[in-house]
Amino acid sequence: MDYVLFGLAAVGLIALGVVLNPKRPDGDRSSRRLFDTPEPVGTGPYEVLLRDPGRKKIPVVKVLRRLTSVGLAEARAWTEDVPAAVMRTEAREEASRAVEALRGAGALAEFHHRPR
User: Fold this and answer.
1) pLDDT of residue 56
2) What DSSP state is assigned to residue 32?
3) Taking a C-beta distance cutoff of 8 angstroms, is the pair 74, 115 a contact?
4) Does any domain span residue 94?
5) Which sign, positive or negative, has the C-alpha torsion 99, 101, 104, 106?
6) What cellular component GO annotations does this protein have (predicted)?
7) For residue 114, which of 93, 85, 77, 84 has the smallest C-alpha distance?
8) Residue 41 belongs to some domain of the structure
9) Domain check: are 52 and 109 in the same one?
10) Which of 113, 99, 112 is nearest to 52 (CA)?
11) Helix (H, G, I), strand (E, B) or coil at 15
């Protein structure tokens, strides 16, 4: 009888530990991240990454120059040395528009939220 109660208590404690300290998607089980408040949506900084310029680099270079107002040499260097962080912004909408413009030119691009 004592073994059954001890087993149920152990199972209850294990279940309680999983509820109090769930495994996060990144695999981290530390309690310091359990009580972190999430970053409000729409606040920065965001970083736009160019992963692959695609088959035709000229339209991507044009979009990069329009988005960032850099020179031709720097825009070409970004298309040669991928992955490259081509833009940092505080607004999520601006980062999303930049990614859509780059994808429209045939590039593979994405944006990530960078914690402060």
Assistant:
1) 92
2) G
3) no
4) yes
5) negative
6) ribosome
7) 85
8) no
9) yes
10) 99
11) helix
